[in-house]
Amino acid sequence: MSSSPQAKRHAAITGGSKGIGLEIARHLLRHPAAGVDKVSLLARNERDLLAAKKELEKEYPVAKVQVLVADTTDESQLSSQLAKARDALGPIDILVCNAGLSIPKLIVDSSVKDYERQVDVNYLGAVRAVHAVLPEMLARRSGHLVFVSSVMGVLGFAGYSSYAPSKWAIRGFADCLRNELQGTGIRVSIAYPPDTETPGYATETALKAELCVRVNDALGSTLYPADTVARGIVDGVVKGRYHLTPPDLGSACLVSSMTGLTRPGVYWTLVEMLLGPVLVLVKRFLTWQIDGVARRYWAEERSSKDSSSSRPSSSCPPKKEK
């Protein structure tokens, strides 16, 4: 991305009415080198969208902000609304695919529909958005596609068997596009947010099974403000980076060590080279730790069931009539 502050750009953000999406919009408008003065926010809830529009217009009076009700699982509606965004504010220079949801459940408690829903929103929602804007970007030979995956896009543990694969899919999609679009003038970036303080995270937390909570605690997860996460994403976008690493060192190192055929960046390449053996040991230790949590959990479950089945009945046997 050019760092010229004179360049005026239009950014469209799915899931832009709150949380990380809204903060990304705020930081794109705030960052001089981003050159963004027009923002289109897309989400399903009109009231949330209007509230977000009011916030941004108050903070950035000279910016142009429009909101569009769109469900990323509806290809026709999403394509139509992105076309409206383009017609109103000009070509979309930056597309941020941020819309997503998490339904954390143990596999025995989840349904196939839980898997279908998250793949539809988290992964296919991004695919639909890209299909709607990419042809015009190719025609202009410029643009930037930004995918918001998750730390769960490079790891997985109890409770996220329906969520993590949808985020891994975004990573695979982004990797393919990064290579396919070489020489076209279109950049690709992918972000891996850690646990972030958002309305979506609050809903997710309420659904977590006990085993999921225990494993999460064992990993020592830190809850980051959405502002911090979004600022890091926008800084990386402005610098033209592909991997937009999380703010915490542990997750950033994990992302760097799982970059496949893509470049993790000079800094993280050096970190990986210097700390490679240490990182291997740390990952082994964490795997041992979370596997131990799962084994203890299921042992407790079996013990509880065995104890319950062997407990004598509290009801008295019926008396025999004489």
Feature tags:
globular; 322 residues; 9 strands; two-stranded parallel ribbon; 10 helices; alpha/beta; seven-stranded parallel β-sheet
Question: What does it look like?
Answer:
With 322 residues, this protein is an alpha/beta fold. The protein is built from ten helices and nine strands. It has helices at 19-30, 46-59, 75-89, 112-140, 164-180, 199-207, 210-218, 226-238, 249-256, 266-310, and strands at residues 9-14, 36-43, 64-69, 94-97, 143-148, 186-191, 196-197, 224-225, 243-244. Strands 3-2-1-4-5-6-9 form a seven-stranded parallel β-sheet, sandwiched between helices. Helix 2 (46-59) links the parallel strand 2 and strand 3 (64-69). Helix 9 (249-256) packs across helix 10. The longest helix has 45 residues, at 266-310.
Number of helical stretches of at least 4 residues: 10
Shape: globular
Q: What are the segments in which pLDDT stays under 50 over at least 5 consecutive residues?
A: 314-322
For this structure, the quaternary state is single chain
Mean pLDDT: 89
Look at the helices and sheets and give the structural class: alpha/beta
Order of helices and strands: EHEHEHEHEHEEHHEHEHH
Biggest sheet features? 7 strands, parallel
Radius of gyration: 23 Å
The main sheet orders its strands as: 3-2-1-4-5-6-9
Number of strand elements: 9
Note the beta-strand portion.
5-15%
Relative helix content: 40-55%
Q: Please give the alpha-carbon distance between the first and last residues.
A: 95 Å
